[in-house]
Amino acid sequence: MELQFYKYQGTGNDFVIIDNRDNAISLTTEQVHKLCDRRFGIGADGLMLLGSKEGYDFEMVYYNADGRESSMCGNGGRCLVKFAYHMGIHKGKYHFIATDGPHDATIEDNQWVHLKMKDVDGIKQHFSDSILNTGSPHYVKPVGGHKLDHFNVFAEGKAIRYNDTYAKEGINVNFVEELPKGIFVRTYERGVEDETLSCGTGVTASALVFAHNDNGFNRVEVKTLGGHLAVEFDKTGEDTFRNIWLCGPAEFVFKGTINI
Length: 260
Ligand SMILES: N[C@H](CCC[C@H](N)C(=O)O)C(=O)O
Known about the structure:
This is Diaminopimelate epimerase. Pathway: Amino-acid biosynthesis; L-lysine biosynthesis via DAP pathway; DL-2,6-diaminopimelate from LL-2,6-diaminopimelate: step 1/1. GO terms for molecular function: diaminopimelate epimerase activity. It is found in: Cytoplasm. Keywords: Amino-acid biosynthesis, Cytoplasm, Isomerase, Lysine biosynthesis. The chain is of the alpha+beta class and about 260 residues long. The protein has 2 domains: about 120 residues, Diaminopimelate Epimerase, Chain A, domain 1 (Roll), CATH 3.10.310.10; about 130 residues, Roll (Diaminopimelate Epimerase, Chain A, domain 1), CATH 3.10.310.10. The protein has an 18-stranded mixed sheet that branches. It is globular. The model has no long low-confidence stretch (mean pLDDT about 95). The site of 2,6-diaminopimelic acid (API) has 19 residues, from helix 2 and helix 4.
């Protein structure tokens, strides 16, 4: 079958996107895995289907590069909004449905996409590390002393992701360094089973953990290997957060057809 696909990236987190509003396509795990393969396929951290859903501008279906359907993808959601615009769905505020519920999003004048993330209630502490869910499960580990640039994110991330606690369900592992203005985040991503250049739900989780303003509005600037993002949110309690917005670029790279 010949498939038309579009390639998008959000701060280096890259995705294959397929317009499936006519609901004509269903892909096996093996097919998604192959499409995401960087040598035998198109190459991507994940694959998304743009679907139709009554009462929403569109539906987001997300697969990790391992081919398995996954939880929410923040950078993917932002790229899918840009793709929806590209496909002629033009809205002041987008309202779509994803695996973790409804999301709002806007495309700003600077072409950044602002994506509203699900509310967060509760952060579990493990010594100085934090565990929370921002639509996907995240482990946040502070790294001090300007060591993050040379940190072995792959080995250290894999060790936590596959330890006895997380081996079964998996977890995304974020290493965070505080900067004079904001934070620097590097992420080992579940389902990619490697470091990605950025992880939207991971950047969001890290920003919540490093909130400076203990009650009320926060904006955290986030540096990732793939570029600059920002997370805005209201801290409403010890570990409760509302009006969480993941803000950053999301760009079309190329389109093509592939036989699968
Ligand atoms: N790999 C993640 C999903 C994608 C998250 C990431 N790409 C993002 O931008 O949020 C997981 O399995 O939980």
